[in-house]
Structures are given as structure tokens and as C-alpha cells.
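Q: I'm building a small set of examples for a reading group on sequence design. Run inverse folding on the following structure and report the sequence directly after it, with nothing in between.
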């Protein structure tokens, strides 16, 4: 299982790349592996306001549909439209080309719950 050390993680299996007040969000290698072959991704509209804990995307696989939750509040400033045409990128490159959204966060304190790579790895090992 791949867990890049430069990212932050959530207990809901999202990864976060933080650059200033912009946070790029996707789902982890563990999440995509658990879902199986991803066949559809639904993303929010650019400009949408999201609140921490809200679902902002849906990922459908051959096994199930799963909602993706935002670990931060803010405004969606960019969506990865490539995922709409090629949702299988989530399986082949979850930490690269398969990011979901970029959110301009409104409260940096909400990041205090995020896990570093070693804490996330321990968390995943504890649920397997």
C-alpha cells in the first residue's frame, strides 16, 4: 500500500496536499483498493461552498458506491474534469492524476485532525 509521506490523511481515507490555503483532495490507495475497479466519479461544481464533514463527491465501482467527505470547509476552486472521462485513473494513480478537487480553505484549524503518513499507516493496519 502506497502512503506518500508529504501528504496528510483522514480516517475516511482521503489524502490532502496543502499548498498555502489551497488543499488538493483525493482518495487513498487503501480506499481505491477497497472499492475495486472505479467506473464513475461525480464531482461538485467549481465555486461550490463545502463544510467540513459534508460529502462532496461520489465514487462508483463495480462493488459499490461511496461518498467522499471533505475534511475542510471552503470553496471549490478547481475540479479534476479528467476523472469524469477516465474514472479508472483513481485505481491506477490515486495520488497523482486522480485528485478530485482543490478547495480554498476557510479555517486552517480544521486541519488539526489530519493524520501524517505514519499515523495513517498505523490506522489502516489497525482496521485490516
Amino acid at each position: 500500500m502506497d502512503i506518500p509521506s508529504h501528504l496528510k490523511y483522514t480516517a475516511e481515507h482521503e489524502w490532502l496536499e496543502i499548498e498555502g490555503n489551497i488543499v488538493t483532495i483525493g482518495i487513498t490507495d487503501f480506499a481505491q483498493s477497497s472499492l475495486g475497479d472505479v467506473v464513475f466519479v461525480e464531482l461538485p461544481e467549481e465555486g461550490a461552498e463545502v463544510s467540513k464533514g459534508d460529502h462532496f463527491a461520489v465514487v462508483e465501482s463495480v462493488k459499490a458506491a461511496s461518498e467522499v467527505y471533505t475534511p475542510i470547509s471552503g470553496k471549490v476552486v478547481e475540479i479534476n474534469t479528467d476523472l469524469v472521462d477516465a474514472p479508472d485513473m483513481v485505481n491506477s494513480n490515486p495520488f497523482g492524476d486522480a485528485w478530485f478537487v482543490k478547495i480554498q480553505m476557510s479555517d486552517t484549524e480544521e486541519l488539526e485532525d489530519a493524520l501524517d503518513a505514519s499515523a495513517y499507516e498505523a490506522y489502516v493496519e489497525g482496521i485490516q
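Residues 8-106 form a domain with the OB fold (Dihydrolipoamide Acetyltransferase, E2P) fold (CATH 2.40.50.100).
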